[in-house]
Amino acid sequence: MIHCLRPALLRTLRCSPRQLHTSARTFEGKKWPGLTNILADDNPPPVQVRTITPQGIQLADGLILPSACIFLEGEVFLWDVPQRLWDGWTNEHFQVFDVVAPKPEILLLGTGTRLSQPPPNIRTYLNGLGIQVDAMDTRNACSTYNVLSEEGRRVAAALLPLTPQAWPRSVTE
User: Which residues are paired to 76 by β-bridges?
Assistant: First the structure.
């Protein structure tokens, strides 16, 4: 929040607080004059989270992801995981990180409304791949992802929604 600026400058900027950190700094559709984001070029990170609601994770482009997802290499993947946190979870649920190159430096693990540390076998598996695991609630994971991806870091996020929802499945005959 910009509280230390002079009142005249605040009236000029007409800034409002945001729920999550994003790289878009606009006022009435225009970039703020005289301000430059030194961490990003004209091409913002491909995936940015705007907000999180009980309906899902809303991306900067307006798309709402109602179920678990993974942000990796600027792409978003739906993630088929068990409904109960850590009940029935195996290394298999994280195999996508075994095949991707280059591997992310950090995996932000958003565990829903509350922090819940992953089982030791999952942390050991990911650490063995050279990936640091940082578990946190999903709101903080999304905000941290926005900042780190904007800085150009090799970061991935595995996010669970605030309200657990079944993964939509299609039935083939």
Answer: 71
For residue 56, is it left (φ>0), alpha (ψ between -120 and 50) or beta? left
CB 138 within 8 A of CB 160: yes
pLDDT digits (tens, 9 = 90+) for 118-148: 999 999 999 999 999 999 999 999 999 999 9
- At residue 22, what is the residue type? T
With tokens 């190159």, the residue in question is 101
The alpha carbon of residue 115 and the mean position of all alpha carbons in its chain are separated, in whole angstroms, by 15
Distance in angstroms (rounded) separating the CA atoms of residues 142 and 43: 19
Q: What are phi and psi of 34, to 5 degrees?
A: 80, -5
Prior bond to 33 cis, omega within 30?
Answer: no
How far apart are alpha carbons 116 and 131 in whole angstroms? 18
Question: Cβ-count burial of 45 within 10 angstroms (0-12 exposed, 13-18 middle, 19+ buried)?
Answer: buried
Single-letter amino acid code for the residue at 172: T
For the entire predicted model, the pTM comes to: 0.72
